[in-house]
Amino acid sequence: MKTRITTIFAGLAVAALLVVSSAAVASAAAPVVAGGPAGTGVCAKESAAIKAGVSIDTLRAFGDCEITRRLTTLDAAAAKISASKALTSSDAAALSAEVAWTKSGLTALKAKIDAETSPVALRAEIRQVVTDYRVYLLVVPKVNLVNGADAVQVANATFAKISTNLTARIAAAKAAGKDTTAAQADLDAMNAAATQAVGLAAPLPAALLPLTPAQYNAGTAGPVIKNARTALVQARGLLQSARKDAVACRDALK
Amino acid sequence: MNRHTSSAARLVGTLLIVGIVAVACGRQGASQGAQPSAPVPTAAASAVAPTPTPVPTVATSDAPASPNASDSATPAASYSPPAAADDPVTGEIQSIDQLLNGLNGSLSGSNGGE
Questions:
Q1: pTM for this predicted structure
Q2: Can you tell me the ipTM of this complex?
Q3: Domain-by-domain residue ranges, chain B?
């Protein structure tokens, strides 16, 4: 009876630990919102003010807020480009130029909005904040996806080093009379997965970088971004698989 | 009448004895049930006990003690993998982990509500 009670309490303690640790994991795995303040909620107050009464002031305040949050997002994107260890210099340069161009255009648009006196023209200029730049649907995804695609290339280079090392290790083990069949199979699988991942990621920067807000508005850029994301998710899965194979190969040679 | 009384008394007596025996058995069963952990160490011990046995088996299979004498003479260059701490492959796998984390970040970016 005493043992049963002890077992029940131990079970409850383990369950409580699992609940606590899963909560910690859930909070740790929460997706990071890239690119600074995001979501329409940032300018909710200004949006509500327009609904309460449309005027030059309320429209201007809304336009300024929407531009400001985009500029904040673009600053974060620029910082990400600068800090990236994966981006090639040419891709980083292209993305930096695009971010700078977008910031410059939005800053000029803000000056125009601040000086605007016609409500009709002001409404059109506020629409341009979205349609002329597509910060959240085009620029930020381009930065993220091109960075991801280049990261797959860097990973592939690292897998090539691992492959060279493990190949030599297999040869040494084989010379010492060890059975290396399993290790060789793991190495072959690793190489195949890494090559496949690169095949998926390599074409992405060239497909993504030329996309323009006009193409997004015409409906042609959206599918390219969606397909690029799908390819990158697949490439990530392949890299994870290649990593497992590398570990298995290394461990098989111990 | 007396016969009926005596048989009834016998029946009651029998039932009492059966009852006492049943209670006694129940207690004994409960006291045995309070030791369910007893078989566990036994099982654990039996699970642990064989582990030393395979170790020499693996060691002997690693060492080329096969009847083929030429095989045991061949490995002049003995194979010894690098220690885990110095293993460059381990370091490169850690680099892959960092790249995968970065990739996760790139794929989890929000569109921010255009």
A1: 0.68
A2: 0.76
A3: 1-33
